[in-house]
Specification:
The protein is an all-alpha fold. The chain has one domain (3-60). The chain is 49% helix and 0% strand. It contains three helices and no strands.
């Protein structure tokens, strides 16, 4: 899956935004955030992005609230 397709899929699935930011940064080999700004979600996304792994982002989907 390409970078673009993966990001579009995460947006469609309502994946946690911190995870997405981490995944994108890792995929693009950007430097990590400052230590005090790193969350568990970001860190998991960053590691998956480094590996270009798209299998785990389903674990970070935020359920939509019904009205």
């Amino acid at each position: 899956m390409s970078y673009y397709d993966a990001v579009c899929r995460m947006i469609e699935m309502n994946v946690n935004s911190e995870y997405m930011e981490g995944w994108m940064a890792g995929y693009l080999r950007n430097p990590r955030r400052e230590e005090h700004e790193i969350t568990q979600e970001y860190s998991s996304g960053f590691e998956d992005g480094l590996e270009r792994d798209v299998r785990h982002f389903c674990s970070w989907v935020i359920p939509l609230k019904s009205s």
